[in-house]
Amino acid sequence: MLIVVYLIAITVEAMSGALAAGRRNMDIFGVAVIAFVTALGGGTIRDLVLGHFPIRWTQHPEYIVLVISAGLLTTVIARYMHHLKRVFLVLDAMGLIAFSLIGCSVALAMDYSIIVAIMAGMMTGICGGMLRDVLCNQVPLVLRRELYASVSLVVCVLFIGLRELGIDTDLNTALSFAGGLTLRLLAIWGGWKLPTFSYQQRWD
Amino acid sequence: MLIVVYLIAITVEAMSGALAAGRRNMDIFGVAVIAFVTALGGGTIRDLVLGHFPIRWTQHPEYIVLVISAGLLTTVIARYMHHLKRVFLVLDAMGLIAFSLIGCSVALAMDYSIIVAIMAGMMTGICGGMLRDVLCNQVPLVLRRELYASVSLVVCVLFIGLRELGIDTDLNTALSFAGGLTLRLLAIWGGWKLPTFSYQQRWD
Amino acid sequence: MLIVVYLIAITVEAMSGALAAGRRNMDIFGVAVIAFVTALGGGTIRDLVLGHFPIRWTQHPEYIVLVISAGLLTTVIARYMHHLKRVFLVLDAMGLIAFSLIGCSVALAMDYSIIVAIMAGMMTGICGGMLRDVLCNQVPLVLRRELYASVSLVVCVLFIGLRELGIDTDLNTALSFAGGLTLRLLAIWGGWKLPTFSYQQRWD
């Protein structure tokens, strides 16, 4: 089940990357690059940091084809996509959570400590979007937007907590997934934000 | 032969990095850093993603010395360099192609699949320039410029296609090189560009 | 001794990251991310490039807790911090030097060549700040500021030179530390800068 959600997730992330590339007037090659980086960059950074070789996508050519196709398709259907805004937000939330759970699992399977597993889950969830924004020359959205990265944190903590309690992995995945999705949708619906830290003082 | 072209390539890339640093008024240390990252960053990212340790340049101190020297030399001769614009563009094209071919070969020697080899070639070819632009706080040029990254793709596909046909590696390298160089020079000459994707709609 | 300085160093770097995040009005999650990346990003890049797995911080959960706590604490005490500017600058200088010495040592322990050890020291010293600035969408300060990255270079060269002369490691560390700190403080005090390279010519 998580695999299906994962495939939907990288597709949706690729599309969000393609739209960001379009906002910078990139050519279609740039669109493909940003789509790829947005969808698979988070997992790549996780695998690098955990020393988990070979990197996951290098063993799954179908992921590469999928995300690049999704990116290029987006250039054609972009004009109609805002009608699907709500569907898109839900799929994006599901992707964020799937990424986080997969990241946690990879780290735990490699016997990393709990805190590193949480970091790995969050890296998988948010680094793709951070790379997208850096390549599009803007401050990463995930560091400023309404509860997004925090959802990833909550999902990872919930998953690891239930695991420590000895809950069966499948049930645990389902519960963490449902909990994270509920939180994210509530956050979108209510416009929940974390407090912001503003600091304008110059020391020089 | 490819080694000589490679050394020219990293020199030229280092110089392009130094000029980009100059546009941002960096100090000479910054110039050295950007020269290094532009010239050797693409190969570094390729080696990281393929899990190819030790990273190539760590075994070749002479590359480090070469690219930093080229970067610093550029600060002295920059004012005369625009006279050499055409030479520079040709050398840059040769470098892009050499990088791509080397990247492909490294991945194939590690038994990665064809599609990963193509990705590795492109990463080697374009990631150095992307890192340069990110560090200089601009949207990567390679994602917007006239046929550049696409030349890398064509070269990789050509090289791997001929290899599948059983063509001898030396001949294959020469043919792919010539094909890529022709395409790149035609693209510069004709100002060929890929179609651009513009998307200005905000969803919020 | 170097461990204590190292812990102070990552705390100070985390705080500088948090202030940079505050200048971009990030939420507290973003503050934690930037604090983490600034403090531990340099060592991460060094470990990746050297192929030194597992990455150091993944084995030290206390580092993760420390830097994130320091980042979050900064949001509370930021308004008083400019009174401590001088203390902060000295601690920051000590951190830069500790990072550089640790980076050198890691590379030497892995039998990398001298020039790679120098690069490793500098990567540890300056890459955290570079990542911080890239994520905050500005040209890295270390590439433009008064003698900073160069201090890292001097420390690495000094440390390796004394090591080649057969000086005992503890004495060597103390001497390199003192030398680097003196240089950095003199540079701040005198406003020493490297010459800048400005290049505004467009070729297009």
How would you describe the overall organization of this protein?
Three copies of one chain form a homotrimer. The first copy, chain A, has 204 residues and is an all-alpha fold. The first copy, chain A, has helices at 2-23, 28-50, 61-81, 85-109, 114-135, 149-164, 169-190. In chain A, helix 1 packs across helix 2 and helix 4 (85-109) crosses helix 5. The mean pLDDT of chain A is 92. Chains in contact: A-B, A-C, B-C. At the A-B interface, helix 1, helix 2 and helix 3 of A face helix 2, helix 5 and helix 6 of B. Chains A, B, C: Belongs to the UPF0126 family. Chains A, B, C: The chain crosses the membrane at residues 63-80, 87-108, 114-135, 147-167. Chains A, B, C: It is a multi-pass membrane protein. Chains A, B, C: This is Membrane protein.
Task: Please describe the structure with a list of short key phrases separated by commas or semicolons.
homotrimer; 204 residues; mainly alpha; 0% strand; Membrane protein (chains A, B, C); transmembrane (chains A, B, C); Gly_transporter (chains A, B, C); cell membrane (chains A, B, C); membrane (chains A, B, C)
State the share of residues found in helices of chain A, binned by percent. over 70%
Strand content of chain A: under 5%
Determine the number of helices of chain A (DSSP H or I, runs of at least 4 residues): 7
Gross morphology of chain A is: globular
Q: What is the radius of gyration of chain A computed over CA atoms, rounded to a whole number of angstroms?
A: 17 Å
Span between N and C termini of chain A?
Answer: 55 Å
Class per helix and strand makeup of chain A? mainly alpha
- The number of distinct structural domains of chain A comes to 1
> What is the N-to-C succession of helices and strands of chain A?
HHHHHHH
Average pLDDT score of chain A = 92
Largest interface: A-B, 33 and 33 residues
User: How would you classify the quaternary structure?
Assistant: homotrimer
